[in-house]
Amino acid sequence: MPAAAPAPWIVLKFGGTSVSKRSRWDTIGRLMRETAGRDGARVLTVVSALSGVTNALQALIDGHADAGATAAAAEALVERHERFCADELGLDPQAVLGARMQALRALAADPRRAAAALDWQAEVLAQGELCSSTLGAAYLRAQGLDIGWTDARDWLRTVSIPNQGEWARRLSVSCSTASDDALRARFAAQPHALLLSQGFIARADDGGTAILGRGGSDTSAAYFGALVGARRVEIWTDVPGMFSANPRQVPDARLLTRLDYEEAQEIATTGAKVLHPRCIQPCRDAGVPLWIRDTDRPELPGTEICGSAAPVPGVKALSSRRGIVLVSMESIGMWQQVGFTADVFERFKRHGLSIDLIGTSQTNITVSLDPSENLVSSNVLEALCADLAHVCRVKVIAPCAAITLVGRGIRGLLHRLTEVWSEFGRERVHLISQSSNDLNLTFVVDEELADGIMPRLHGLLIASGAMPVDETAVFGPSWRRLGLPEGARREAWWMARRDDLLDRAAAGTPRYVYDLDTVRARARGLAGIAAVDRRFFAIKANPHPAILRVLAEEGSGLECVSAGELAHVFAVLPDLDPGRVLFTPSFAPRAEYADALARGVHVTVDSVAPLRDWPELFAGREITLRIDPGFGSGHHEKVRTGGKGAKFGLAVDAVPAVVAAAAAAGARIVGLHAHIGSGIHDTAHWREVHAVLASTADEIGTVAFLDIGGGLGIAYDPDAEAFDLAAYARELVEMKAARPEYALWIEPGRWLVAEAGVLLLTATQVVDKQGVRRVGADAGMNALLRPALYGAFHEIVNLSRLDAPPGTPVDVVGPICESGDVLGRRRRLPDATREGDVLLVADAGAYGMVMANTYNQRALPVEEALA
Ligand SMILES: *Cc1c(COP(=O)(O)O)cnc(C)c1O
């Protein structure tokens, strides 16, 4: 019988904060025991020094010139460790730490101190890990764990790298990852199944101590993992893992539960701080999976980095690096001058600068310098520029930020990035670089821009499908969700009315159902903003009579864009004061203006044509001008109604001509209006609009009110942040305070009604085709056009099986003969979903029924409002 294979190793690593408390050591002991028990593995744990100790050791080194101060610094460290040993761990310091403290004192008195010899420095720095691992082993043994202690320097050997200086060869070393059977056998022969060792330290060629440098402990764990052929390396830290963006900038950033080595390397290199980029390569070379886990929340999946799983194309992360310096070099010689590139790059080498990104043209080379790779002081830059000036014209552009999209197969995704491109298109992009490994696309922009743009870009990446967050193998919960107590997801009204909705669905689907309480609550939210003088509901979002009545009751006016909408409003509310109605058409025929003027509603003119061509209509009338402030905003290109590409509004420089035309016609301009997009979350947007309107109004002189439009967004993704009404209100208060002489009007549509509506459908068929499962519904783009038209996301649930666990991802499709008839992709409906189940499409109260159509001769949905 063959001998049983030796139990595999699993390597765990704990950082400084994870070893500086007794309770944390209890956690380490428990995790070691559980890991060994569950996986039948042996466990090697690598630890950092106690928090702050490495810095204290570095300070001791920095003060080496003063013998007394060095000795005092050593004493302080002795005392810190002894106190931790006695007070925190309840152990006898003399028995546990005696030898270590002696070594520390001896180093302070070592003759190599005076000159701060590099080998002495390395030995001093090593004491932190030697002490913490010694303390931990003693504590865990006292808790009854049979644990061994091993000196990392017996296993990790440095390798030298070309161009490495003396300092780096001792204090920022790399170690060999070449598989060494003898060493592996020796390691395997150790008597303990649980072992404790140190991060950060290794053995130099001369037998002395060497230090791994930044990110050292993670890298040690990776080296150990490679060396012993571990089943995996687990990095235990104080965050849940790697995220799709920096969660402090982007609370909607998603936990990345699985990455391949190359992607993880790229994310770590372009900004994520969780893992040092250096620690990925050893695991990758040895094919050892690397896990990031949260010490405080071991139940979370963490991030698994491996090379085995099938790659998922798509953007995985968005990162930004600040402090980037661009150097732009214009050739002064001839076009395509031979040797120009070599000439300039040689000068960067001469100044010790390593180049990150490169953009070239026939006569220009622009490169970026990353501050994390370089010491880009102004002195160095000046010297470099002086030197470069011999061969080219130089321009330095700084400070910049590099915003990077990381993910496999970026090249195949360019068509999905139109929104991202247009977001950047509003700003100045200095350099675009697409990496040759097809893993990253980087935009270099002015630094001040970077932070503000990140949440928006992240949202656009998700909305466009470029970041495939429905891939549940790769994307976990959002940072925001992780911060919430278990199960505390958004409470939607329809959850509490499930039985009622199922009964209604039984009477026939497709069916829109509106919750009037939700509409009322939203209306009251806006009514509470005192800075707003008048509110108008844009009825095109949802003209259902019950909704119009509720909103009119709550004090809202109504905004119409056609004669048809006007007729509808006065049919539903015959007694409504026409002064509470706006008419804001686009390219409408003359008769519609005539109709609106006859009704006495506020009429908005959005080009010179009506005044020029039909002056008699406007004689003696008060009108509003629709201004295009020159920029647009919103969730999709098709809903951006400002800027050169949009058909709406008067460009600011065309206003004088229109004012003249109004005067000629005998019309008086009493209001200015702008509505430049829909689905906007950035509340600062309306302040910009208001500023343009106010300054235009100042020029005209007869204006009494400024209408800043609607466009308030909602969170279609239940994981995303709700519209920040408080921030919106603050902006409105500021606008009003800045220009109190103008009345402030707003006209939201979507925000008032979207969440109040659901679309109920019935499942027709469940079909598997070539690896994709589709659940058919009895209506699709004919009932709800938004997903097909805008690529919009709507949450979809199986209302019949609301409590069943999420299953394998499916595409939810309609019955229309168009490939675009998809309501949602990769949705995790319950696996038991079958014909006859009721599907609920959430947040369908705005731009739902109004865009429904009878394409394919399918009947329109029915509608009902819940009182
Ligand atoms: C559509 C529209 C609105 C409302 O837009 P929402 O994004 O639904 O808030 C406001 N004003 C005008 C002129 C509109 O056309």
UniProtKB/TrEMBL annotation:
Residues 9-294 form the Aspartate/glutamate/uridylate kinase domain. InterPro entries: AceGlu_kinase-like_sf, ACT-like_dom_sf, Ala_racemase/Decarboxylase_C, Asp/Glu/Uridylate_kinase, Asp_kinase, AsparK_Bifunc_asparK/hSer_DH, Aspartate_kinase_CS, DAP_dec_asp_kin. Its cofactor is pyridoxal 5'-phosphate. One of its GO terms (biological process) is lysine biosynthetic process via diaminopimelate. Coiled coil: none annotated. Gene3D superfamilies: 3.30.70.260, Acetylglutamate kinase-like (3.40.1160.10), Alanine racemase (3.20.20.10), Aspartokinase, catalytic domain (1.20.120.1320), Lyase, Ornithine Decarboxylase, Chain A, domain 1 (2.40.37.10). The modification N6-(pyridoxal phosphate)lysine is found at K540. Residues 512-845 form the Orn/DAP/Arg decarboxylase 2 C-terminal domain. Residues 534-754 form the Orn/DAP/Arg decarboxylase 2 N-terminal domain. Pathway: Amino-acid biosynthesis; L-lysine biosynthesis via DAP pathway; (S)-tetrahydrodipicolinate from L-aspartate: step 1/4; Amino-acid biosynthesis; L-methionine biosynthesis via de novo pathway; L-homoserine from L-aspartate: step 1/3; Amino-acid biosynthesis; L-threonine biosynthesis; L-threonine from L-aspartate: step 1/5. One of its GO terms (molecular function) is diaminopimelate decarboxylase activity. Its EC number is 4.1.1.20. Keywords: Amino-acid biosynthesis, ATP-binding, Decarboxylase, Kinase, Lyase, Nucleotide-binding, Pyridoxal phosphate, Transferase. PROSITE patterns: ASPARTOKINASE, ODR_DC_2_1, ODR_DC_2_2. The active site is at C817 (proton donor). Belongs to the Orn/Lys/Arg decarboxylase class-II family. This is Diaminopimelate decarboxylase. It comes from Coralloluteibacterium stylophorae.
